[in-house]
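Okay, any thoughts on this one?
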Amino acid sequence: MNAHSAPPSSPPPPAWRAWLVWGLGALFYLIGFYLRVAPAVITDQLMADFQMGAASLGNLSAFYYYSYVAMQVPTGALADSWGPRKLLTSGAVVAALGTLVFGLAPTLFWANFSRLLIGGSVAVAFVAMLKLAAHWFPHRLFALISGMALFSGLVGAVSAGVPLRALVEWFGWRPVMVGSAGFTFLVAGLTWVFVRDDPAEIGYTGYAPTGSRTLEDSSRPGIRAGFREIFRYRNTWLLVAAPSGVVGPVLAFSGLWGVPFLTTHYHLAPARAAALTSTLLVAWAVAGPLLGALSDRIGKRKPIYVVGSSLSLLGWIFILMVPNLSLPLLVGLLLITGFASGCMIIGFAFAKESVPSAYAGTVSGITNMGVMIGPMVLQPAIGWMLDQNWNGAMIRGARIYDLAAYRKGFWLILAWSLLASILVLFTRETNCRQQG
């Protein structure tokens, strides 16, 4: 028996300890979403402080996604070699340092660098959480906990709406970011103290099969071979590209351009505009588990994905192109669009079932890369379009863009959303069964 093995008669871990371990991982994932969306409610301060236009602001926000996307491939290997405890702790430390640099950044260069640090560090959270769930909870709860993981992240995104805007108005954005860095350092410390990779390390019996790591390591195909294999299947190409056009609009709007658009053209206070963009995220969060369960129940993936992507396209057309909508109608459209966009969660199961089971981890990571490519490209691209159509108006050092400029920028959202709806039509149904 090695140092990390529990006696054969050891009981499973108590529920409170399992939830504490997993909850600290979920708290870091929540922080990652909070930091992802935070620039949306401080666009005016950022543009004034760093003397930049929309293209530079979009690029500043997108630096988070550049490193986040790049980290998707090695994260699975790191979770296996380092273990979730080391991975989450080190990720939280780097995220805290990045947030501190962001709050103190004297120039745009340092602000961009800080966002790069943040994105790469929080990218490890989701995979580490799933690995903890596999060791600390019975298998029958894995799907539920996966859904709760996504929900915890979107709670973080909502916290970067009205609550963050209120704090910024009271204290200023820099002190709030420094405080956020301090809280993230605290989470890193708590993670190191309380999280363990497997219950056996503290005398309990874990739920992962004995010797599963050795089996996984010996049978796992190389990264390069895995890439070559999964892209032999048509569904892989389609299900990597499609979520970019579903998630990209949601995070480009709620994560950056929605608040300035609503404050300028609906004359809403920033806090109220942030509340509306949070409505979109709440609907998205609720939809994911519900649509996933519906897909499992009917035994189909494609119909829900097709309907959801088509409804989200129609919603964006009305939200972005029809001026002067009544506030109740605007809220209703945001709810419908957010809920319909939740269809993207089906893509993970859809992609996993479309390739041989040995490549499930590889295709999941690649699908998640596709999800994040959408906002990574759309945020700076919309900013560039806004700058190209700026009429010179400014308020308190920040550029103001008219409705015509926003419409031209938002055509990028509609084009990518339309492409996603078309691509999903060409996928091959798996009937919720592994195809290889």
Summary: The longest strand covers residues 394-395. The radius of gyration is 22 Å.
